[in-house]
TrEMBL record:
InterPro entries assigned: Aconitase/3IPM_dehydase_swvl (IPR015928)
Gene3D superfamilies to which the protein is assigned, alphabetical: Aconitase, domain 4
Single Gene Ontology MF annotation: 3-isopropylmalate dehydratase activity
Organism the protein comes from: Salmonella enterica
Protein name in the entry: 3-isopropylmalate dehydratase small subunit
Keyword annotations: Lyase
EC number: 4.2.1.33
Superkingdom of this protein's organism: Bacteria
Length: 83
């Protein structure tokens, strides 16, 4: 699920498109940050961090595991009694 914010006018246009074209498909392109419907394209903004996470399928654990080597290196430098 990707919530995007569009203007009221854009949402009204989308409702009109659906009414005129039942079954129309919308395409949400997260990489390009656009919603496409018919011959219309609507831009949206999303925080770079959230966009990166969604494009790479990362949750908080996945983000942490991206730094697994650095974490292991840090842990190896700790005194034995802290391990």
């Amino acid at each position: 699920l990707l919530p995007v914010t569009l203007s009221d006018a854009q949402v009204d246009e989308l409702f009109a498109l659906v009414k005129a074209n039942p079954g129309i498909k919308f395409e949400v392109d997260l990489e390009a940050q656009v919603v496409k419907a018919g011959d219309k394209t609507y831009s949206f903004k999303i925080d770079d961090f959230r966009r990166h996470c969604m494009l790479n399928g990362l949750d908080s654990i996945g983000l942490t595991l991206q730094h697994e080597d650095a974490i292991a290196e840090y842990e190896d430098k700790q005194p034995e009694f802290m391990r």
